[in-house]
Amino acid sequence: MSKIYDSPAEALDGLLFDGMTIMSGGFGLSGNPESLIPEIRKSGVTGLTVVSNNAGADGFGLWMLLESRQVRKMISSYVGENKLFEQQYLSGELELELNPQGTLAERIRAGGAGIPAFYTRTGVGTVVAEGKPVEVFEGEEYVRETWLRSDLSIIKAWRADPAGNLMFRKTARNFNPNMATAGRVTVVEVEEIVPEGTFDPDCIHTPGIYVDRVVLCTVNEKRIEKRTVREKEIA
C-alpha cells in the first residue's frame, strides 16, 4: 500500500491535536520540513511541545509556530540567531529545556530504540545535571538522561519510494533519521519520489517501516542562514 499523499495538508490530516509533542528535523536551516510546518500553523493547534535542535531562523521554519504563539515548550540545543525564540524565553512566555547537542541526539535515538534512560558524562557538575540522578562508573561521574519520543515526527528527506524508504542528502540528514524512529507517527516531505525498486538496499538511510506518510515538498527554499564571502583578490 502506497504511503504517498497528495499534499502536506492531507499528509497531516487527523494527526494534530492541542498539547501534542512534535519532533521537527533540521539543523540550522538544513533539513527543515519547510512544507509541513506552515500546515501545522494553519491548523491552529496550540500548547505544543516541540523537539528540535533549534527553532528555525527569523521568518523561517519553526519560527512560524513561535510567531503564532502555538508552542508552549521547546526541547532544544541551540537558541542562537532566533531573536523571537530568545525574546519569548527571556520573557517567560516560552518554556525551554536546553540540552547539549550530542545529548539531544542520543535522547532521540534512545526513544526510537526503546531505551528509556542512559548515562553520559556531558553536563556533569553543571546546570544540565540539576535534579537528575548521577552515578559513578569506573571512577567517573555520569548523569542520567531520559529518552525523547513524540506523537508526531515531521522530517525532510531527499528521496523516497512508495514504501517510505528514505535517502537524505549530505548535512540535511542531521537529526532526521533518528526522529523518524522516535515518532508514534512519522510524516516525511521529500524532494523526489522514485519508483519502487529504485534504491539499492545498502543505500537506504531510513527503512520504510519507520515512515507512515510521504509527500512531495511544496516549499524547498534551501536558505542560507549566514553568507560569508571574502573580497576578491587583486591580481
TrEMBL record:
<dbReference type="InterPro" id="IPR012792">
    <property type="entry name" value="3-oxoacid_CoA-transf_A"/>
</dbReference>
<dbReference type="InterPro" id="IPR004165">
    <property type="entry name" value="CoA_trans_fam_I"/>
</dbReference>
<dbReference type="GO" id="GO:0008410">
    <property type="term" value="F:CoA-transferase activity"/>
</dbReference>
<dbReference type="Pfam" id="PF01144">
    <property type="entry name" value="CoA_trans"/>
</dbReference>
<protein>
    <submittedName>
        <fullName>Succinyl-CoA:3-ketoacid-CoA transferase</fullName>
    </submittedName>
</protein>
<keyword id="KW-0808">Transferase</keyword>
<dbReference type="InterPro" id="IPR037171">
    <property type="entry name" value="NagB/RpiA_transferase-like"/>
</dbReference>
